[in-house]
Design a protein that fits this description.
With 306 residues, the chain is α/β, with parallel strands linked by helices. It has two domains: 3-191, Rossmann fold, CATH 3.40.50.620; 211-298, no CATH class. Helix content is 37%, strand content 8%. The chain is built from nine helices and six strands; from the N terminus they run ααβαβαβαβββαααα. It has a six-stranded mixed sheet, with helices on one face. Strand 2 (102-106), helix 4 and strand 3 (129-133) form a beta-alpha-beta unit. The relative contact order is 0.16. The structure holds flavin mononucleotide (FMN). Flavin mononucleotide binds at residues 59, 144, 148, 161, 163, 165, 169, 171, 181-182, 185, 190.
Amino acid sequence: MQLSKAAELCYEITNSYLQIHQESQIISSTQEAIRLTRKYLLSEIFVRWSPLNGDISFSYNGGKDCQVLLLLYLSCLWEYFFIKAQNSQFDFEFQSFPMQRLPTVFIDQEETFPTLENFVLETSERYCLSLYESQRQSETAINMADAFREFIKIYPETAAIVIGIRHTDPYGETLQPIQRTDSNWPDFMRLQPLLHWDLTNIWSFLLYSNEPICGLYGEGFTSVGGVNNSLPNPYLKKDLSDIPLLFEWEIAHAFGKNAAGEHDPIVNTSPISVVDKERFSEYQDDYYPGWYLIDDTIERAGRIKN
Ligand code: FMN
């Protein structure tokens, strides 16, 4: 897919979600969340930094939050280009999309699940990302600020980086949608237009999008870090109690499915790598998929503190 096509697809997914008429509190709050993110991107961010000339880079690690933000970012990128092209003196059909790949940075802090690594590579192709991946020096985790220092040395034109962090993430409570990095970090602007999203918003939009999502979520993970500090979420163990699925409608009516009249209950998860399959066969328990967990306060219950 070309970047322009990926951006147009994301625009159609987003529009389609915004047009859903369902008596669902989750869907209406997610529509509100999308509108606010779009406002930040189109009216506050793209007016200060051009998304088309390398000023902005996107922090991407294959996780659900940054994937949601990537879909919305590409959607706004399409709209930004479309508005510019419409205002131009030339006919729209003679305008070509001015960017081939989206500048993206993946700070691979610790040993990553091969399933996630593959997902990042596959989605890099799908969304036409130009992916900078940090190199780990040793088995020990790298320092994130140092990794970004290295990145900025290589791409000094980067004025701002988009981050899919939410208020419910650790240290996320007091963050602002647009702010400078702290003094012990390399100097650039942090663009954080997803802060107000909660877990239900994330799953509702992502499952509706019908875009491939990282297969680890299908195995009960709700927050993915390195192989040595991430497990399926213990609150999703199958023998605990029956957990209801709140996103049946989104899954059955997902983008592209409704047109074909399919309404099937399949979620588009990426394949689990052979190495991870072996790793997971050692687990004693079965788990509900990650999208059964909607309580933000226990989202990281599967993360082991080092
Ligand atoms: N953390 C800080 O304490 N100060 C910063 O200035 C800062 N800048 C960041 C810039 C970028 C582009 C990214 C991706 C992260 C930054 N962080 C900073 C760290 C994040 O706030 C957060 O702690 C980190 O992304 C944790 O990721 P996790 O959710 O994968 O654990």
